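[step 3/7] fold_predict: job queued, chain A
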Amino acid sequence: MDIRAAIVEASDRPMVIRPLTIDAPRAGELLVRLVATGVCHTDATMWQQGVPVPQPVVLGHEGTGIVEQVGEGVTDIQPGDPVVMSYNSCGTCPTCCSDDSSYCHDFFPRNFFGTRPDGSSALKAEDGSPVFANIFGQSSFATHAICHARNAVVVPRDLDLRIAGPLGCGILTGAGAVLNALKVQPGQSVVVLGAGSVGLSAIMAAKVAGASAIIAIDLNPDRLALAAELGATLTINGRTGDPVARVLETVPAGVDYAIDCTGLPAVIQQGIAMLGVRGTCGIVGAAAPGTLFQADVSHVMSGGRTIRGIVEGDADPKSFIPHLVALHQAGQFPFDRLIRFYPFEAINDAFHDSESGAAIKPVLLFD
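[step 4/7] structure written:
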């Protein structure tokens, strides 16, 4: 069938929207008509080859829409179901079998290689040449996407699908870092370094968890103001002084948890320095391979402190996305406040505004 998709033809050129053809779903696959899709920093990183992906390629990994067709063997999802698409995983490796699919042994090929496992792509240009797809098992910068039964999550029919896409990655990552990976408990203290969509989601989740001190650190005063509205008990502008000193003035014994959402070595080091005894620094922000940070060995060892990476919020999308939807519908997780809408045709503007900080979470809307 014919669709329209935003294609990255080269890392130094804007995306272009062109007509393509898309395959019918194969066994285990779904054809989804997109309603909306979020714009994520990871998309920009792939576009600029910070994470190398083949080109020409259709990116996009926070899609939501309506199932139009299902492939052979798909029994738990039906045409007409509203779904959120999340990251892809194999379902058979040791970590997938232990419900830790965000650490799938096949995570990189299934999310970044741009093809199905057999090397094929569901998308073709008008001249019949293949266009790489299957990014995060979906490639949702298109009017339609082929995804997999494993990474499609059915959501309630009364949920506004225009806001639901970011639940598949950015919102899931920040909230999951707090609720799944770190398991923050009532009365504990959390500092979030970086108040973008992931960091603000972590702040909302820390409030849900009952944290007593929720500290947001960023360079953007508008984002810090929003962080305060969403649950931060203290906001710190990193331009105006030493964030570590400010945190330790407020929590002299150090915080229980620091969550880095920047991937910047200097910021990660600050997060580690803020930790109290047995505290944990969770690294959520992505960095280029080979990026290194330093830590005071005595500080880490003598206090039993922990440094750990967190991928996709340690979340199983099939169970965690419905949980976040329920929290939102109960008025406890207002992630819609992070969203700014753009028409699909303005995809390059959405990326520009995301990069400049004008928009926290751009979401593209389809006709």
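[step 5/7] annotate
The longest strand covers residues 29-38.
The chain is about 30% helix and 25% strand.
exit 0
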